Amino acid sequence: MTLPRVIGPGAGPRAVVGGTAVSFLVTGDDTAGRFGLTEHRIPPRAPGAPLHFHSELTEMFYVAEGDVLLTLGTDRRVAAPGTFMLVPPGTTHAFGNPGTDPATLLVMFTPDGGREKYFRELGELLDSSPGPTPQMLEELARRFDQFPA
Fold it and tell me: Which residues, given as ranges, of the chain have pLDDT below 50?
């Protein structure tokens, strides 16, 4: 059973993925796998997530702070705070921070799809020595319904 809670900015359980702090605000454990919510504190000039799609997940993005480069299909735009993007399954998308200031992005998933485990494993893989091969990254992504575009 999920207990009510309040989590402050940048707080709560988290992982670091390629320099981006990812806080797990709501996980599948909280919602019986129905929903997940993460906060991504993206440093300046961070490439973020490359172009990809999900077969089952619906993903939603909300720019909370700073400017974030959002890609949805062939549409690429620098999105200001307050911008929302809905990504249905099968739709290619990406995000990053091309600017000189940090940005904060809220990312929601339904169903959750094990995203906490994905981000934790990705962070560990990116920090490993030697670094991961493209095949290792692709295998990890595929296990969590993420496919390169």
Answer: none
Tell me whether residue 146 is exposed, middle or buried, using C-beta atoms within 10 angstroms of its C-beta: 0 to 12, 13 to 18, 19 or more. Answer: buried
SS3 annotation, 58-75? EEEEEEEECCEEEEECCE
Cα–Cα distance, 87 to 121 (Å, whole number): 23
Spatial separation of the C-alpha atoms in residues 6 and 138, rounded to whole Å: 35
Angle at 142 between CA 1 and CA 130, to 5 degrees: 105
* DSSP class of 99: S
pTM of the predicted model as reported, rounded to 2 decimal places: 0.93
Please give the Cα distance from 28 to 11 (Å, whole number).
Answer: 18
| Torsion sign, CA atoms 60, 147, 13, 19 | negative
The three-state secondary structure class of 23 is strand
